[in-house]
Give the backbone structure.
Amino acid sequence: MPQNIRNFCIIAHIDHGKSTLADRFLELTGTVEKRKMREQYLDQMDLERERGITIKLQPVRMKYEVNDASYILNLIDTPGHVDFSYEVSRSLAAVEGAILLVDATKGVQAQTLANLHLAQEQGLAIIPAINKIDLPGARIEEVEQEIKGIFGDTDLEIFKISAKDGTGVEELLRSAVEKIPPPEGKEEESLRALIFDSVYDSYTGVLAYVRIIGGRIKAGEKIFLMGSGAHSEVIEVGIFKPNLIAADSLAAGEIGYIATGLKNVNLCRVGDTITNFSNQAQSPLSGYKEPEPMVFASFYPSEEANFDHLKDSLNKLKLNDASLVFEPESLESLGRGFKCGFLGMLHLEIVSERLKREYDLELVLTTPSVAYQLKEKYSEKEKIIFSPQELPDASKLEEIKEPWMKLEVVCPNTYLGSVMKLMQGVGGVYKATQYLTSQRVIIKYETPLREIIVDFYDRLKSATSGYASMSYEILDWRAADLVKMDILVAGEVVPALARIVPKKTIYEEGRLLVKKLKEVLPRQMFTVAIQAAVGGKIIARETIAAMKKDVTGYLYGGDYTRKRKLLEKQKRGKKKMKAIGKLKIPQKAFLEILRK
């Protein structure tokens, strides 16, 4: 049976046509009826369809005939954005091959290289393809040379396709059958199933998305999770079409789901190995390298009573997003909440939006920060902090270190000067320039992580007219001269808006932040002062003017003293409101501030 199975995924940079190619595969194999077909069919979340990007990996099972032989094709559609690279790495661990898709108009991009390296590390069969050859701006021959350059093979076979109109798609799918090896593993072995994703179902508990490495599993059997030590009876097994379809069993080489019946979401983790309870495997499968969070922010429920609801929601969301990490924390001003780690700013935005939409939660978000390594005076130990609130007084600090990244930017060589100027502005250290072709270059830099987590990608796109792309990975820790900047709104410190900034740019950062706050905060019936402070010293200020109400509008004449009395009364009222007034900052304002 495994001889007739092919497991593969599609990898590419964002917006290179992965989901569109998956649509053509679904049509070609008749997996989805034409009347039910829609664009980006495998993107199941509303958020994915709205933004036009893939956020979650999505498996689907297809049947295809080649030379009178019937094959089962298990395809996993993967995200392309750097923030969701962990989804890609988990997909690659569950398959034997990958189709590497490159846009004919844009050429090789940063995530093309990053995803290719991930696939090569797994030892997968890789089939390169140039997409969008039907577009007027297609640079087919030039992009072909770029791909051959990164593979180091001048005789490499590269497929030219248009996923939109179907040109060359059937030949590409046939090559996947011919070039990707069948899975290894036998049904006679002890059951070993690798969990590469999971979701929570209120009726059947945790649904584990699995790749069966060896053995066979069916409903009613008792299973054992080798990592968590949990055991349960299987409620149902099935396959993805791409909706969940129950099956009699899952055997070696197949990809499907197991309804575990587990209600505790912490017992079924991505990367764990499922085996038979009575006939356990000798050793678990090697799991995944744990993702390293890059950005940290705290989520607090707008109402204290929703803390437990937020806790349950984060646990269920972690099942579906293994790169999310969180732990409880509390602040006197905000109450109880959770400190969360994310792979990037887009990841943070998506998680906060999913919590709002899927779990009906209104949140207060703290300003995103990176981790910092501290060494205090008179102490031998180093500690790591994840938020500005944890930073002690400067007089107690001996040294503070921040994470640095290895950054690669791919762009046309005409924008080389613009990119270098941008990198110098964020304190980047130039390392090398590598030419993909005579027209395209890879620029390598080292830079502080805090400089690239918020709006660097937008500035890079702006500086290169949208042609540049980037990828980054953690490098090391380096000493920095940093201070904590507090934000006061209406005379009160707002802990959620505090941030850690370089000492040399505190005045510039302070002015920018208070100016942005003035734009996004709602006006009140009283004057609101917004101030930035470092060590108790005010370094920037903006004022939101009070809303005006015409209290004399109904007067039609008479002595001016009547108007004067009403205006004085209004003035006293505003002064009173200012003294007792509390300004509630809406979640939308927090998100706007995060985007600078």
